[in-house]
Design brief:
Belongs to the CbbQ/NirQ/NorQ/GpvN family. The chain is α/β, with parallel strands linked by helices. The protein is 41% helix and 16% strand.
């Protein structure tokens, strides 16, 4: 199956109900102002801290369809823009997800953009400045983005390396929003609601999560994200004892190192 087949033609309309999102600061207002001003947005922050959920919520709020592309090292500009395909002996042009999003005036979310091949930045640059044009080189066409189109990219500065840094020429086109794990009471509310556990269990999980984040730099690349705490809560809600849930959803998920797994489990033992 090719990449294109995973993105069939139709773009889903926004959901009827608001995707649940707890605002942390002024991100809702800034995103909305950026979109109304036709400025693209860069979301910075560690994995699992609410960036995707935020974009889902904002697309709903602005009444726009959302097209999400998870970028990976094999993703090329053609994967985003489109290509000619031979089907039943005929050559037809098939729009890629970015071209479809531009045509539909959707919000296009390119998750972990630095993972993609370098040629992808070439196609997003003219889209991300005043021109708002998508060059479709193989078709010899320049696609003008309608006012409703919004470009959003995300990037995890924690994984930063010389090879995977976002270039100034790219980042200086975007309005940047910084994400981090939500403050403790808010994170507890999210874990309670998304994980289906009581307030006390959620508060303990969040305390545990914060402890694991302090192990960052001491061998752990990253501590438990909000996403992992939600996963742990779901296991607990499904009947798994808390310590076993912390082991499976957090300790073993964040590291392969036996000593670090034991250290994370020990932290779980102090709250459960
Ligand atoms: P990211 O895109 O940053 O990797 P996600 O948006 O997928 O992370 O967040 C992971 C999970 O954490 C979400 O599915 C949701 O359950 C929860 N979450 C994190 N932050 C929030 C928030 N502010 N409001 C609601 N849910 C959140």
């Amino acid at each position: 199956m090719s990449f294109m087949d995973e993105f069939p033609g139709a773009i889903a309309p926004p959901p009827a109900e608001a995707p649940y999102y707890e605002p942390v600061g002024d991100e809702v207002a800034v995103f909305e102002a950026a979109w109304r001003s036709r400025l693209p947005v860069l979301l910075k922050g560690p994995t699992g801290c609410g960036k995707t959920r935020f974009v889902e919520h904002m697309a709903w709020r602005l009444g726009r369809p959302l097209v999400t592309v998870s970028c990976h090292e094999d993703l090329t500009a053609s994967d985003l823009v489109g290509r000619y395909l031979v089907r039943g002996g005929e050559t037809t042009w098939v729009d890629g997800p970015l071209a479809r999003a531009v045509r539909a005036g959707a919000i296009c979310y390119l998750d972990e953009i630095v993972e993609a091949r370098k040629d992808t930045t070439v196609v997003i640059h003219p889209l991300a400045d005043d021109r708002r044009l998508l060059p479709m080189e193989k078709r010899g066409e320049l696609l003008q983005a309608p006012p409703e189109f919004g470009l959003v990219i995300s990037y995890n500065p924690g994984y930063q390396s010389v090879l995977k840094d976002l270039k100034q020429s790219t980042r200086q086109r975007f309005v940047a929003l910084e994400f981090d794990y939500p403050p403790e009471p808010l994170e507890a509310r999210i874990v309670e609601r998304e994980g289906g556990v009581d307030a006390e269990t959620a508060a303990r999980l969040v305390r545990f999560g914060r402890m694991t984040r302090n192990l960052r730099g001491q061998g752990l690349e990253e501590g438990a994200s909000t996403r992992l705490l939600v996963h742990t809560a779901r296991l607990i809600a499904a009947g798994i004892p808390p310590r076993a849930a912390c082991r499976a959803a957090v300790a073993r998920a964040v590291t392969d190192d036996a000593e670090l797994v034991a250290a994370v489990e020990e932290l779980a033992g102090t709250v459960f």
